[in-house]
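Practice problem: predict the structure.
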Amino acid sequence: ELERLAEALKEIDKSLEEKQNENISVELLKNKRMYSIYETDLKEKNTVNLFDSKDCISGEFVFLYPPGIPLVVPGEVITEELLEQIKVYMEANMNISGLKDNSNKTIEVVK
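Answer:
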């Protein structure tokens, strides 16, 4: 009986999470490119807190996965709008990936 109850609660939780994410639209921003990915790869980088990286040039990819949409690529300027968008996705438990820091707290930026 307890196993059936646990499974039912998991299903309810999963369906609520899916419905919560349905209300969030994925908006693609046109980020300003400062360097090509290749040029960025050759530059020195610092690691900074993700939400303190406004106006920095990204040194790495940030994806929304699934479906694997790049939110920012190396060489693009990190804007306040982008950081707000990432925060909304994180608060909705959507998967942000691509950062070397698996906790998604820091990002590499060009010095």
